[in-house]
Amino acid sequence: MKVRTKIVLVTVVIMVATIAAVTGICLYEFRQELQNQAMISQESRLKTFWELLGQKGHDFRIVDGKLMAGEYVLNGDSTLPDRLKELCGGTATIFMGDERVSTNVLKEDGSRAVGTRLQGPAYDAVITKGMPYRGEAKILNIPYFTAYDPIKDSQGKTVGVLYVGIQKKDFFSQYDKLKFLIIGLAAALLLAAVFVTRFFIHRLFSPVIRVSEVLVTAQRDGDLSQRLD
Q1: What is the CA radius of gyration of the chain?
Q2: Which end of the chain is more exposed for a tag (fewer CB within 10 A), N or C?
Q3: What angle do CA 174, 176, 177 make, to 5 degrees?
Q4: In angstroms, rounded to a whole number, what is the distance separating the alpha carbons of residues 61 and 70?
Q5: Cα distance from N-terminal residue to C-terminal residue, the chain
């Protein structure tokens, strides 16, 4: 392998590693910031949901198998989740215990997911421990950014759960487009850098190549009349 080819290859490897590292770090940091923004947005949406629920009543209790907010029956009434979706987007649910009784989460057949159960880490945190839960969760096998708060009665017993969430794919749709754009630009930049590097290294080595050609000619033909600038 020629010396200039080795230099080009080493330079290209260094550029590839550098551009890949910088691109990867930037995309990682951007994704992390988007995740933080996703969780902040869930906090805001959950506060709005509490405000809407509070307009119906603050005395939460279960009466005859129905979750009540004051005198308002929450079971089977999707007004509040639908209103939150109009205001903030995303999904929302009111649970009685661990059962969805009011929701805008849809099943595959397009019907509301009323009657389905809360599962996973959110169940352990909210139902078992009576504590809020923030994080990622799968709802009907679809990944979401979520926020859950326990609904407690006057004795402090958890009688239900308030939930808001947004699908990860919806939140990251613009990020995915931007990611491919950045990777494409990085690849184009790398390709341009390779051609520029090859051109300048060729220019740098051209006098050496000329000397080599003259010496080879002199050795082969005994021609010492050629001049080198």
Answers
A1: 32
A2: C
A3: 65
A4: 8
A5: 27
- Centre a 10 Å sphere on the Cβ of residue 3 and count the other Cβ atoms it contains: 10
* C-alpha to C-alpha distance for 16 and 133, rounded to whole angstroms: 42
Helices (H), the chain: 3-54, 79-88, 121-122, 168-171, 173-221
What is the mean pLDDT for each group of 10 consecutive residues in the chain (229 residues)?
76 83 83 80 92 91 92 92 91 94 90 91 92 89 91 92 89 74 82 82 78 80 73
Q: Which is nearest to 49 in space by CA: 77, 99, 100, 88?
A: 88
Residue 135 Ramachandran class (φ > 0 left, ψ -120 to 50 alpha, else beta)? left
Q: Which of 109, 113, 177, 180 has its CA nearest to residue 144?
A: 113
Q: Decide: helix, strand or coil at residue 151.
A: strand
Q: One-letter amino acid identity for 154?
A: S
Strand partners, 94: 102, 162
d(C-alpha 229, C-alpha 224), whole Å: 14
Q: Please, are residues 35 and 146 in contact by the beta-carbon 8 Å criterion?
A: no
pTM: 0.70
pLDDT of residue 197: 80
**Signed CA dihedral, 212, 213, 219, 225: sign only:** negative
Q: How far apart are CA 191 and CA 170, in angstroms?
A: 33
3-state secondary structure of 113: coil
How far is 197 from 7, CA to CA, in rounded Å? Answer: 10
Residues with Cβ within 8 Å of 63's Cβ and at least 6 positions away in sequence, in order, are: none
